[in-house]
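Page 37, top half.
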Amino acid sequence: MRHEQRNKPRRAFLKKVTLALLLKLGLALTATSMSLAATGDPEKEDLKFGFIKLTDMAPLAIAYEKGYFEDEGLYVTLEAQANWKVLLDGVIDGQLDGAHMLAGQPLAATIGFGTKAHIVTPFSMDLNGNGITVSNEIWKQMKPNIPKMEDGRPVHPIKADYLKPVVEKYKSEGKPFKMGMVFPVSTHNYELRYWLAAGGIHPGYYAPHKGDIAGTIDADALLSVTPPPQMPATLEAGTIYGYCVGEPWNQQAVFKGIGVPVITDYEIWKDNPEKVFGMTKEFTEKYPNTTVRVVKALLRAAQWLDANDNANRPEAVKYLSQPNYVGADYEVIANSMTGTFEYEKGDKRKVPDFNVFFRYFATYPYYSDAVWYLTQMRRWGQISEPKSDDWYFETAKKVYRPDIYAIAAKELIAEGKMTAAEFPEFAKEDGYRDPQTEFIDGVTFDGTKPNAYLKSFPIGLKGEDKI
């Protein structure tokens, strides 16, 4: 691993001197210097990026460890953050130049839910990667409700329908049914709500216009925020009965024997977009060359992570298990990163796409992905007022930046590092995926029809509804 962070300014200076000498001597330019010439030198070379200790920060770790940032003339420090709010605040106030973010964070900040700031994303970091875990006691109560078993194992997906009698029992006894998610605008919050609502369990509404940001109005299950690394301990303490989180914190519950992951987000919404790389709009405008180079490095890292049917994943797990990255045991991280997922103890199944970093155009910042997150904000009251379809489209374009992505991708193709087949056909791409059908409730999502999509749900705000 490269630990010489404090020497980066000196290395940047030496690199400049070396290139100048090569030019003066008339020597052939190196591949790196050719790359520098193609876009122009980075306006800012020394950068600090934030992340949360989750396996889906992997593109940042790999871009650093494999030297992809340095290939672009960038000298990067990666710094773990205490929680998602601290991370977002760090990007907004300039302490961080960019960060591994929840897909909902740039959107929420830009529309002013929570902190107001114009955050953009030119790069989607991954697909899938989350799970929902319940305590051993809740699983014991759920299991008799599962209608079909094979060889003593439950047939998946495990629906929230099987949890509903448990929640109703708690309510009848006057006990709140408490679950955890990582942040109000996190994928985890929306996936947990989606799963619960699909099973007839109301996860509650927000009413920010009334000063209510708890998200528990009319709730059958009460959802609260817990930072990802603290999820297993909070479950073990009995403070919550289940949670939705990214890896390795579902598998950690299995290894500790304190809980059972019942479903992955792959089973809730196949190949759902997860994290993004977020930067302020101001940064991308002030440092356009730097921004493109960051995306180039991340693209190479994502490609490496999925190359040859995940053949590089064991090496990636070695990096991620280090305390400066995720810091969980190798075996815990490998349980999901290498194409398997363990549900109930001993029930390990193949899930080759549990983590996807590059294939299926995972890195492309689709407008339709942004639209989905905005529909869920509206569905649960974080967006208090009705919005037109055009509002959804315009907001998506303010935040998701496929134009920056395309510059980076085309440059990598020109350099021979990647091929055109690995990317969408840019000349024809409109930023909207084909309608997606593989949701646990069977509802189809068409990103070009956000209000029609909202009307398809029996639970949730739609049309002119207000709290």
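Page 37, bottom half:
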Amino acid sequence: MYTNDLVWLPQFIYNRPVYRRKTRQIQVGNVKVGGDASVSVQSMTAGYTHDIDACIAEINRLTKAGADIVRVAVPERKDTAALTEILSQVSVPIVADVHFHFKRALEAIEAGVQKIRLNPGNIGDREQVNAVIDSCKDANIPIRIGVNEGSVVERKDKQKRQAELASFFADRKQGHLLAMMIAKVEEYLDIFESRDFQNICLSAKLMDARLVIDMYQELSKRFDYPLHLGVTHAGPRETGSIRSIAALGSLLSQGIGDTIRISYASDTVFEVEDGIELLNSLDLRTRIGAELIACPSCGRIQVDLFELVDNVRAQLENEIDVPIKVAVMGCVVNGPGEAEGADVAVFAGDRKGIIYVQGERVANVKEDEILDRLLVECKALQDRVRRGETKLGDKAVTIVAPLTVEGNTT
């Protein structure tokens, strides 16, 4: 169970090996988690599971956005009763989120869900927990053991809580809380391992990004089960994205983490989109579609750059599925240098756009023609890549700022 080995796993993204901590591998429907599998992205439905049509529609939206796994809440019998129909109309593995009633887990397993999320501490009867474990074992589906800071605090036995508070991590920020959560994970694992059940994924979420990093570093040192990363109570997207990516980006960069959920008090599609972009940015996932880079706000911009970027992004999302790197730059001062390495680049000057494709200047167009011509060049490059006539990133891209006869930038 204890592991502290960092190994090169046989996983390659963009022909480069990815440095990942070795964990056991579990199977969630058709998605592998841990081992040499790519990091997967999860989200959770926000509506009622018993509202079958709405639940299916939300799951399918998340699937279209790129979610690998989707979790649904099943607090009541009418929710588990809806699962059979829901499962027949979706294409991603479904996790049943079970809290206080063990029968909901048994019903969800019978309906055919691909994974159970369980906090054993919310079910007081040990035999009821054992019944869930044994049922998952018979069905050959994994269980995610979830421990959150809000559920770990011992409220009934104050003496036990005091002992936990004093026992570990005394020299670290909120060390007592980390200690309590680690101890609780170990306590839960004893239950599962006593039933000879290792088909497990672990999560231990907190709302403080620094504590999340500390917690998962400890888990990764102590256990070889795959880890589900997340920040709980992250808030709205505007602030939650920073909090979540600060924690998850740090952990993933250390090779820690096998599946992630970025949690927002917002549209769940944003959770999936931002999770995928995080993995793309760390080269932990092969990008599907264009990668758009653009310069920040600047007094040298000579076109309506922000509207142009929004329009380019919308066009590329609909038309491009090859990972072309597209640069949209607002001037010729830093634009050429910053656009180097892009497959397709446009930078502006004096209400014009100069377009490069793989380092070759192909057009000098008026501002109102930039969008259409840029899309034409991206689609043409995509077609050449698909036909095997060129490869992305094969050519050294060097862009030189053009000058007018008078020496002024255009």
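Margin note: The two ends are 63 Å apart (CA to CA).
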